[in-house]
Design goal:
This protein has about 150 residues and is α+β, with helices and mostly antiparallel strands. It has 2 domains: about 55 residues, no CATH class; about 70 residues, no CATH class. The chain is about 40% helix and about 20% strand. The strands form 3 sheets. It has a two-stranded antiparallel ribbon. Strands 3-4 form a two-stranded antiparallel sheet. Strand 1 and strand 2 form a beta hairpin.
């Protein structure tokens, strides 16, 4: 009887560890934090800001930094309201090709109350491509691609 309980507990621990690892794999945590350490709440005020490790939180097994205590508190009160779509990977790339592509954290759009981040380097500003190619259609495709990408 005790061996069954030990086995069950061991399986539960492995499942939980796998779940956290799987969740982390679906977030762009370049530089160790979501949104490359930018304050995800600040985007909604129209001014992206680098976060400060003094004001940090963990959600869904991923670390987030904030520029102010107020933003940290806002996030903690409703984290799902601020998390970037598609784990913080380039929304255009997820929609167009279903590929996880890093972002320039200062290239973003708030659309329908959601944060979308984009790759931007040289002549490849994917926010411009996104706006030109119909964000609504790309969001539909990205949502389907994201389901496929995050299936475990």
């Amino acid at each position: 009887m005790n061996n069954n309980l030990i086995t069950l507990n061991a399986l539960l621990v492995l499942f939980l560890a796998f779940s956290v690892t799987a969740q982390k794999n679906h977030y762009n945590t370049k530089k160790g934090y979501a949104a490359e350490g930018y304050d995800v709440v600040a985007y909604f005020d129209g001014s992206p800001a680098k976060g400060d490790a003094t004001f940090s939180a963990e959600h869904d097994g991923v670390k987030f930094k904030f520029s102010t205590k107020e933003n940290l508190d806002k996030f903690n009160a409703s984290p799902e309201s601020y998390i970037p779509q598609y784990g913080g990977y380039c929304a255009y790339a997820i929609g167009k090709s279903g590929k996880k592509v890093s972002v320039n954290p200062e290239t973003y759009e708030i659309r329908d109350g959601k944060l979308y981040l984009f790759y931007n380097s040289g002549k490849n500003n994917t926010l411009e491509f996104w706006l030109r190619d119909s964000p609504e259609a790309l969001i539909t495709k990205a949502n389907l691609n994201w389901i496929r990408i995050t299936k475990v």
